[in-house]
Amino acid sequence: MAEVLANAGNDTTNIEQVKYSNDTFHLYEKPVGGKKIHIKTDDYIRSFGHDPTPQGPPPESEALPAVAEGNASAKATAAEMAAQVAAVNGRLDQVIPPNEQPLIAEAERKFQTGHKVKVVVGSENGDETQDNWEVVETKGRNSYGEIVYIVKSPDETQTREISEALLENMQLAPEGKIDSFGNQFDRFEERFNERFGRRLAKIEARLGIESSEEETQVMPPVVDGDGKAERREGPGQEVRLRGRNHDGVPYVIRVFTDGRPLEINYNIDKAWNVIGDEEGWFPAPNGLEIDLMNPPEAPEDKKLKTWTLKEGKEDGEELEIEEGDTAVIRLPDGSFNKDGKIKDIVEEDSKRYVIITMPDGTEHKITEEDYLKGHIESGNFDEVDEIEEEETQAIEETGGGDGELGPPQTGLKARWNQLKNWLKGKRGKARDAAIAAQAAAINKANGITEPPDDPNLSKEQKERKHKCRRLAFFLGGAALAGGGVVLAWWLTSKYGVNPFDNSPSGPESVPPPTGPKNLPGPEVSGWHSESLEPYNAGGGSFNHYDAGTLWDHTIDDLQEQIGQRPTDVQIQRATQMVLDHNNVSWEEARHLPVGFKFEVPNHFPDWVINGR
Amino acid sequence: MFQLDDNLLQQLGLGSLPPAEKNKMLAHIYETLELRVGMKLAEQMSDAQLDEFEKFIDNNDEAGALKWLETNFPNYKQVVADELEKLKAEIKEQAPAIIEATMKELGSNQPTDQPQAA
């Protein structure tokens, strides 16, 4: 029997404190006529506004039922109860509660006793940081397993219990008051770049892409009205981030402080300005989660519109324009204005008109032919030569291969998209110039100098030559993929293994894959057989990888299960799981014959998808 | 399947290149092959065929493009194989010069370069 040491409560409920023979305490709520329920002391204090624990030392007792020897669960419960009572006693006495848990070794602690730390203190005017708080001791671990520290204020009037993770975060907090949205944003930016910058750098190094300052930076917070970035009442504020996907296509993400879903927009100009107001934004399918290297593609209705303008005559000039392009308007005095943006093309009375929006919001409507003439007369086409020269030079400096285009991706879909994205934004002759420059660079790297165009070539012949070259990369891409030409290094390095390096943990490669042996056990419902087909890049559907390698099968199955393109980490875990199950090493997987049979799980477990 | 991998580089006499240079070389081989095969096929096409193929690009229909290629140029795989053989022969001939130039370039960068990921 337990000994009831004290009672508290009201007319309908009794609170009992009970002491057991092993000197542990227990609090119970006992409704009149009801069953006795164990309660936590904190819950009681919240409900009743005072502490039920009797003041002063409880009377001695004896012959109380002991917790059965070897009953670990009961012992743990008893220890928990004792800690609760002890904590309440400690609060009443206004002293640091006794540390019931064993001391944590210094080596495990990031903060040692006596360390001065920065602590964020709340106030009515917002949070602020205070320096010179002192670590007194540890107070065990919280339910997340984090070390909890007891720290005291510089004037020794306050103590606080802070987990190690929170205390670490506090050391990163900006000085002084941190109620400013801008301050918080600065910290966020720093941590964002710290977290993703390294990852990007690693990926870029692996792909041979040189970083540029434009890569995935965080843009300043966008605020309304007076431009001050202060927290304010009303609609959520907006924060924008810049990024580029695997193919180097730029995009902007915006998040809102009111918790709305994250949104993405690919319709941006070279200065990262959004084109078309709100029209290009679409919500991330998974709310606030997004793979920065593989953001979802824009729905068709969110893409920018493009048009081809044509002169009325048969062999007239053509000009491709895109919504948001800089518009060139010929003014009555013969000068040219380039402040406006292309908004739309409308058709009236069998004539097409270009609609241009000016910075002040006014709109101009110009016939297709007039716009085209003005564009040509403005000399805009002459700029093409400069582009060609610049691009050729840039490519030559890198010794072949346009940095913007990047190393060729294997698989027709991937290469096709890469080429399309490379040419995105390049119009008409500028596009031809870029392609010509790329071709020239490749030829030059092979020691071939292409003779200049024969001046006697007719316009049609020149146009055909441009067209052949323009189509050559796409034609070649299709032919190589269909013909089964595979860039093996890309397939393997993409997933973290450099086939030319025997030490996969080297600095240039991602960490070696962690197999199921080091991860929670897979809960796999079953496996099914698949086999390697002849490589047929591009033969599959748009949403599926080619099935020429074990990786492709794994990615396809995983994609089918989760309904979206898996991340690199997910692919790595899934592939490792499949390799382990089939007793195939990463090295062997690179040389598997067509027809090789292997097993893939019917359902990938959570640890593959979520890492836990 | 034509695998552009380390074995190919070994065959061509480029096995001693550093790993990073091997990657660059394979990428370059791929790009060169792509351009040459593409130009070879484009030159054989009529204007109408060029227009037809361009539509697949405009519509971002790579699967359609491949089917069109298989229908209109059933020998395209032979073009790929021929061009690859020609390219391999060219590279093999130049392999010693490529290695020498690469090593020289890497050597000249050595004193100023910080240790970095390859």
- The helix-strand sequence of chain B is EHHHHH
The level of helicity of chain A is: 25-40%
Give the low-pLDDT segments of chain B: 111-118
Sheet-strand content of chain A, in percent, reads 15-25%
Strand count, sense and barrel status of the largest sheet of chain B are: none
Largest sheet of chain A: 4 strands, antiparallel
Rg from Cα of chain A: 34 Å
Strand order of the largest sheet of chain A: 1-2-3-4
Question: Greatest contact pair?
Answer: A-B, 61 and 52 residues
Kindly state the percentage of residues in helix of chain B: over 70%
Q: How far apart are the termini of chain B?
A: 29 Å
Number of helices of chain B: 5
Q: Determine the strand fraction of chain B and express it as a percent band.
A: under 5%
What oligomeric state is this? heterodimer
Structurally, how many domains make up the residues of chain A? 6
SS-based class of chain B: mainly alpha
Give a written overview of the molecule.
The complex is a heterodimer of chains A (612) and B (118). With 612 residues, chain A is of the alpha+beta class. Chain A has six domains: 90 residues, no CATH class; 67 residues, Thrombin, subunit H, CATH 2.40.10; 91 residues, no CATH class; 74 residues, no CATH class; 100 residues, no CATH class; 120 residues, no CATH class. Chain A has 14 helices and 22 strands. In chain A, the strands form seven sheets. A four-stranded antiparallel sheet of chain A has the order 1-2-3-4. In chain A, strands 5-6-7-8 form a four-stranded antiparallel sheet, with helices on one face. The radius of gyration of chain A is 34 Å and the shape is extended. With 118 residues, chain B is mostly helical. Chain B contains five helices and one strand. In chain B, helix 2 packs antiparallel against helix 5. The C terminus of chain B is likely disordered. At the A-B interface, helix 7, helix 8, helix 9, strand 20 and helix 10 of A face strand 1, helix 2, helix 3, helix 4 and helix 5 of B.
